[in-house]
Amino acid sequence: MSITRRSLIAGTASLAAAVASRPALLYAQAAPRPSPTPTPPGPFKLDPLLYPTTALAPNIDAKTMEIHHDRHHLAYVSGLNTAVKDHANVASMPLQEILAKLGEMPEAIRTQLRNFGGGHANHTMFWLVMGPRSGKPSGDLDQAIERDFGGLQKLQDDFNAAGARVFGSGWVFVTVTKEGNLAIETKPNQDTPLMDGKRVLMGNDVWEHAYYLTYQNRRPDYLKAWWNTVDWTRVGERYKAATSGTLTI
Ligand code: MN3
Q: Ligand 1 centre from 202 Cα, in Å?
């Protein structure tokens, strides 16, 4: 899923050329990112966004996307890299394994692994399940939503209610079992169901930094609008990966 720096730069250049020749048609979809994605040193990387920071507006504004990805998520990756710096055995482990085995991790860095590792996993998932194409759930995922929630509207209502009830900072998730069963779950701070050995189908960040510039204290409005950003094609791919045992974070 990661894009090389070279292809990103090449893509940006050709986008810029296309924008220059047909500005009115392409600008809204294809505005280049204002700055390149920072790359913190260490084993854990910050993947670039797969779409421009403007792509989710007006549901999520470009400034929020830029600050959230380039500063907040970067800080989690940097913190995680710092934590594992003198722990080669932890540094070489897959992130989902570190989180599932937090209790076995060196006590000196356990809190950092929890906060920064959880933050890295949560945000990596978050950017992936959003995008400009949205769509609707289909196939097995659509059937599972019908079976486990009584339809998409009910899932959205229950998910939004759960997200609104999170006190302070945290997340609301849809978890998925290997059998394909779905459930709604919330976690405080940067905790994740990965810490319970579960898999996350999708999730929404209800920290104020995720919505404050546009929505201020109106978290329920953000929760409602967020569904317009969900890329159901990619969520469907995650569902398939979960049921075939290949979904990681
Ligand atoms: Mn966040």
A: 14
Alpha carbon distance 175, 177 (integer Å):
7
Instruction: Find all residues with CB under 8 Å of 95, minimum gap 6, and list them.
Output: 44, 117, 120, 121, 248, 249
Q: Would 62-128 and 139-244 be classified into the same CATH topology?
A: no
How does pLDDT run across 107-135, given as a tens digit for each residue? 999 999 999 999 999 999 999 999 998 89
Cα(73) to centroid(ligand 1), Å: 7
Q: Ligand 1 mean position to 69 CA, how many Å?
A: 8
In the chain, where are the structural domains located? 62-128, 139-244
DSSP 9: H
Q: What is the pLDDT of residues 191-230, one digit of tens each?
A: 999 999 999 999 999 999 999 999 999 999 999 999 999 9
Compute the distance from residue 210 Cα to the ligand 1 centre, in Å.
Answer: 6
Contact between 124 and 149 under an 8 Å Cβ cutoff? The reply is no
Distance of CA 11 from the midpoint of ligand 1 (Å):
27
Confidence of residue 12 (pLDDT cuts 50, 70, 90): very low
Ligand 1 center from residue 25 Cα (angstroms): 32
What b/e string do you get for 98-109 counting C-beta neighbours within 10 Å, with b at 16 or more? bbbebeebeeeb
CA 77 / ligand 1 centre spacing (Å): 12
* Fold of the domain built from segment(s) 62-128: Helix Hairpins (1.10.287)
- What's the 128 CA to ligand 1 centre distance in angstroms? 13
Q: How far is the CA of 239 from the centre of ligand 1 (A)?
A: 23
CATH number of 139-244: 3.55.40.20
